[in-house]
């Protein structure tokens, strides 16, 4: 018996291919669910941590026990009854034709105060979701956008009912209960409404579930165009190759240039750019070498968010859970997101598309003591930034793109080589 | 340059410990570019003497200008590559600006040194050997980890079998998994400390000796094989004192021909020849110097295979022209630019040079055709669309690789100008291109929450 087991070990260790472990896979040890008291006590805020995981099967009963315990814990957690208490139930009514006033009320010239994109009405809003979701009209009813209604419905926090007119109930019979809408019906009715594609919904609901507040930005409507379209790249944002101007400064400059290079050996036409003479220091050499124009993001004008090409335009503003939010006056977003369907837009953006997208975001230069100190961090942060959500058949990859102005960091002005040990690769212990 | 600079200087004690000292790279690579720089005494306006001294130094320059060294390389048209064979030029180009790559080495041309060491003529070790040694150690440790894990499983099986026979119940499968996880990182750390405490410091007795302890205070056991090997290698390292480096150079050179030369990329060669004027490129067949004005079209024609004929018109989006523009741009900012082919990118950017730090940025060159010329006809529009097309999958692949090797990905768009009337003025030609860089990295919503 023991021999057979040893054979099995050898077989598994030699034949099993090396399993690539990616930490972002975030496999959870479900046994931890047993220790959680969220099933009985909702006030506890602790989240499950990741446990250790065996990557190869072995014939020990120990491993088998661990596995069955994990399975048991998962089933236990799933089997826990989830009850919707009638007191906390939130009901929404589908409005296929957009926001309408309540039956008795009169609509005056002020209108409803709600955009026509909203399509689910919640007469009695309660619960924490409405802090960041929906918009109230003059009668204190909250209207929801299709993605918001779908998200709440999928969470089980909202019941959507068919309106009386569509369900064939006598409109005047107030006591007759409304017919609930199924999830399938909600997908059919709400997806595709007012520019909501499945890709946009995937991104919205994914970020929402992670705790972010997500709102539509002005670029939501693909067809919306800016009134004065620049439709070209910010030309003046590129630096000019150096030239010596006229006037006294130019004469003095020429004078010094002659001192540097008295025989006129320096030439950009046939080289050498730096000349054959003697240079006083390397900074001068590098200055002479700067002949290629580069884009300076700080000089570029910010464009209208609508002056961009769909799908490379910001359609969501995203707020971290910690950002205080007032629905009447949304603060500056923490992230701006453009959603791309990788099956429709199959190639990566061209410079015109991505340049316009970045120029439509506000200037956000690297600031702070840390940024001043660390050049790499400055470069990585950039002057403007945007997040691209590339959705490929339901799989979302988020890419943060920022304008890095390498030309603004004159590396040659830094004194000496970088300090600190060469990281990675060879092992070195920490300094004590 | 001087022989003294090759003498390895011991790093700061306590940080490097008993390792053979690294060469003083700050001194060897003190010139960032292979051009002469003479410091002129500063002008102090209220001190007439300083003006006189400045004038004097200028005068001496005018009377006897110090010569700028010009190195030579040859162009091989069959392989479209440029080679430097002169020993002195190889050394100068590597030390001042890290140009080129040894044809038999990973980057620095070190074949001769390695060969000498292999034949037991030199002490010390090259970077290739250090890497090989590290990889062997790592592999041994991984084998050791596998062994430890297997033993733990066997023990567990035995215990289970015994428990089954006696009818006992083993402790439930709650809590810890089998044994303790064997961490390669911890083992490397422990081994490093161990080697330090075993090897006597060079002429230094005051070094603290300590038992091989991991930070948690747990000692890690090694198999006998590993431990013996460790002792041998560390004592061998301590015997090879770095003092014996390079004293019988001439005697060995007679026996050992250097089979290696330096290959410089076409962009590097053009930068050295055109921008700095320190390189002359010879045509191999005709044995004549290629003037800079015809070097540019030549290298452009050789940017594809098979090379275009010399009479062909230069395309503005020629791969060589675009990659040279990017190379020149980053060089002019002070970065050391080297090929990024090993990470699937066009360039890697080093701060000061590869011996000082790892590359922080990996650059990808992408063409852009925003000029109205390129959208004038249907044919041109189709051409530019095809030229700009890159798939999302490709981008994700490159991005994930860079994250794995801890580099930041830079998308470097080059604005392609319409075709130029003439290509005589290279300066005017290359300054028609425009560069815009973007940094791209994965955004992970789970970790950006606060």
Automatic annotation (TrEMBL), chain A:
A Gene Ontology cellular-component term:
tRNA-intron endonuclease complex
Per the record, the GO terms for biological process are: tRNA-type intron splice site recognition and cleavage
* InterPro entries in UniProt: tRNA_splic_suSen54, tRNA_splic_suSen54_N
Give yes or no: UniProt keyword Nuclease. yes
Give residue ranges for domain tRNA-splicing endonuclease subunit Sen54 N-terminal: 75-162
Q: Which UniProt keywords apply?
A: Endonuclease, Hydrolase, Nuclease, tRNA processing
Which terms in the Gene Ontology molecular function aspect does this entry carry? endonuclease activity
The family note in this entry says: Belongs to the SEN54 family.
By what name is this protein known?
Answer: tRNA-splicing endonuclease subunit Sen54
TrEMBL record, chain B:
User: Which keywords does this chain's UniProt record carry?
Assistant: Lyase, tRNA processing
* Residue span(s) of domain tRNA intron endonuclease catalytic: 320-414
GO cellular component terms, semicolon-separated: cytoplasm; tRNA-intron endonuclease complex
Which SUPFAM superfamilies does this chain map to?
Answer: tRNA-intron endonuclease catalytic domain-like
Bias (Basic residues) ranges: 12-27
What EC number(s) would the UniProt record show? 4.6.1.16
Q: Which GO terms describe its biological process?
A: tRNA-type intron splice site recognition and cleavage
Outline the segment boundaries, as ranges, of region: Disordered.
Answer: 1-27, 109-140, 189-217
Catalytic residues (positions): 350, 358, 407
Pfam families given in the database record: tRNA_int_endo
Provide a Gene Ontology MF annotation, just one.
tRNA-intron lyase activity
Q: What does this protein do?
A: Constitutes one of the two catalytic subunit of the tRNA-splicing endonuclease complex, a complex responsible for identification and cleavage of the splice sites in pre-tRNA. It cleaves pre-tRNA at the 5'- and 3'-splice sites to release the intron. The products are an intron and two tRNA half-molecules bearing 2',3'-cyclic phosphate and 5'-OH termini. There are no conserved sequences at the splice sites, but the intron is invariably located at the same site in the gene, placing the splice sites an invariant distance from the constant structural features of the tRNA body.
Q: Per the similarity annotation, which family is this?
A: Belongs to the tRNA-intron endonuclease family.
Protein name per its UniProtKB record = tRNA-splicing endonuclease subunit Sen2
Q: What is the lineage of its organism?
A: Eukaryota, Fungi, Dikarya, Ascomycota, Pezizomycotina
